[in-house]
Amino acid sequence: MRTGRRTKRWLWRWRANPLRRRDDVIEAWLVLALWALFTVGGTLAGVLTARTADDVFMQQRAERIPVTAVLLTSTPRAEAKSYRAFAQVRWTGADGSAHTGKTLVDGGLRAGSTTELWTDTRGNLTTRPPSPTDAAAEAVLLGAASALAVTGIAFGATGAARWWLDRRRIDGWGREWDLVGPRWGHKTG
Question: What pLDDT does 21 receive?
Fold first, then answer.
């Protein structure tokens, strides 16, 4: 039958105690700061990174324009469905000017066939912008990676600081033992 008081006390590191050392108080504040960085810093970093990435992807979708281009060179026959090869292409920009360039296109296309390309507002070739679904997934992954990076750095720094405090405590115990140990050096017979 359990009738005793609870032995674990909340916030014991901050309570008055004749055995409490300054290093114990420093460690308590470090642990508190670590948890604050885990919760607030990690969450804030993740949310800000995800929102920034989503804004960049939205800007890319707004600035990139699909154009139809004509292949000037043929590409080798495709061995696999996802095979792509470099080819010389020609396209007309949004302002009506003609452009030529080299880009990746599907394999197995003959010269004179058309393909869809993406250009920026100046008419230069660029990559296809991510779809809203792909952009959302990538923003979530980038936000999670950012949150993990912040919490990992905080955890590593706190671990290093706690290791340093442990070394200080062990050295202090060694110095105290050097003072007390010789008094216990008598032999029993």
Answer: 81
